[in-house]
Amino acid sequence: MAFANAAARLTYSIKPFEASAQIPFLQEDTGVLYRAIRTGAGAENWEQMGEVNGTVAADATPVLGGDLDVADSAIISTTDRDIVITPDGDGTTVITDVVLASDMDVNAFAITTTEADGDIAITPDGTGRAVVTNLSLTGNADVGTAAITTSTVNGGITLTPDGTGAVVLKGHPIVGRAAVALTDAATIATDCALGNLFTVTLGGNRTLGNPTNGVPGARYTWVLTQDGTGSRTITLGNQFRVAGGNCALTATAAAVDVLDVVCVTTSLFYVVGKELAVAADS
Fold first, then answer.
1. CB of 258 within 8 A of CB of 222?
2. What is the pLDDT of residue 45?
3. Which end of the chain is more exposed for a tag (fewer CB within 10 A), N or C?
4. Which structural domain range is residue 18 located in?
5. What is the radius of gyration, based on Cα positions, of the chain?
6. Three-class SS of residue 192?
7. Burial of 7 (0-12, 13-18, 19+ CB in 10 A)
């Protein structure tokens, strides 16, 4: 019996077997395994059914006739070569249930969706988080009805423009942090990293010390409340600038005065507004 082969014609002697019998043949020079099937009586009726195992190195354009099941093996390359999956024409490469064992580098390309208005979702498992570092957006980031938050306790979210760029927040309302209650003392300390609205009840004549961690361009507000005695005074630290050089308060017991301040530099604060006696307990 003779089998045609692109490289050589191979001849095998086969004893008669029953009809429909199948026999594997290994071509030793290529390591390719063939399957033959007997279709009738006589060795002359054996036919080559094609390669069933081996290598496709000689085939520059292999075509799968069904799903490729690698079982518990892997598709790998050697000597630092890439593995490229390129669809034809308008076809797409569809990968489902992908688990990355290392970083995925898309280089200068992008991860996109071909579905009209389709989403690209990165969903961590359980309490895991999707961590994105050095994110550069070329379009708008739409969080829908969700929020941009931090999972770090008391962690901040920093938006830093490049060079002379600016951070522009549009729309209303902008919800700030809760008011920060300051500790009443002879010199009242303020850490601007904790918020931008500060409250304190004056239990005596006080000095409002120079704030720390001020951000140039930011506005800060102090709400100063007289205690039950009243007539408490406030002296501003030497980094404050206020018209007239003083900051007289309402003397009435329980009166509330408000100072509105702009940070010009980390060591210079302009008092741009004073609202006196905005409220008083009866």
1. yes
2. 47
3. C
4. 2-53
5. 39
6. helix
7. exposed
